[in-house]
Amino acid sequence: CKSIKEITLSDSVKEIGAEAFHGAHIEKVNFGDGLEIIFDGAFCRSNLKEIVIPEGIKIIRRHTFMDCKQLQYVKLPDTLSTIDYASFECCSALEKVDFGYGVQTIRFEGFSNCKMLREITLPVSLKTIEKTAFAKIPFRSVDFMNFIGWQLETERYLKKPKIKKINKKLLKIP
């Protein structure tokens, strides 16, 4: 339905099924506090402009927000530990991601081809960034905060000449 631009989910909604809003014209979702899981591709290719994921979500499943061409801002909760394969891939308008303090893993192609994403601050909780997690992004600034002893598989993607600032304070790469 092209006329529905905003939806509000009640606190009683515990899960959003796979591809539930795939290709939908909705621009905004107000998630309820009871949400526990959003399944694969739930909002893939939708017209979302902004997403605030509620506390309680532990994993963003694969392809959940992939190819959301109008998505500009994402706020992730502190309870989130994993950003799965291609969760935000090809979100070409994405400019800002506020990572929660619990994110530990960003799987491959998690944010690849997000061409407007120029600066990120990765949380201290992050332990693994898989290969191609941030591929094809023209970063200007990547702030690693205070990482100690984590696995970086995409170091070569984060050291391209276009990057002007990499804060590796206390960073130890094995």
Could you describe the 3D structure shown?
The chain has 174 residues and is an all-beta fold. The protein is built from 1 helix and 15 strands. The strands form 5 sheets. The protein has a 5-stranded parallel β-sheet with strand order 6-8-10-12-14, with no helix packed on it. The protein has a 3-stranded parallel β-sheet with strand order 5-7-9, with no helix packed on it. It starts with 5 loop residues before the first strand and ends in a 7-residue tail after the last strand.
Characteristics:
174 residues; mainly beta; 1 helix; 2% helix; globular
- Number of E-state strands: 15
Structural class: mainly beta
Strand order of the largest sheet: 6-8-10-12-14
Strand content is 15-25%
Taking pLDDT < 50 over at least 5 consecutive residues as the criterion, the unreliable ranges are 147-151, 156-174
Overall shape? globular
Summarize the main sheet: 5 strands, parallel
Radius of gyration: 16 Å
Oligomer: single chain
Task: Give the helix tally.
Answer: 1
Report the span from N to C terminus: 51 Å
What's the overall average pLDDT, rounded?
84
Task: Name the helicity range.
Answer: under 10%
Order of helices and strands: EEEEEEEEEEEEEEHE
List the helices and strands and how they pair.
Elements: E1 6-8, E2 15-16, E3 28-30, E4 37-38, E5 50-52, E6 59-60, E7 73-75, E8 82-83, E9 96-98, E10 105-106, E11 119-121, E12 128-129, E13 141-143, E14 151-152, H1 155-158, E15 165-167
Parallel strand pairs: 1-3, 2-4, 5-7, 6-8, 7-9, 8-10, 10-12, 11-13, 12-14, 13-15
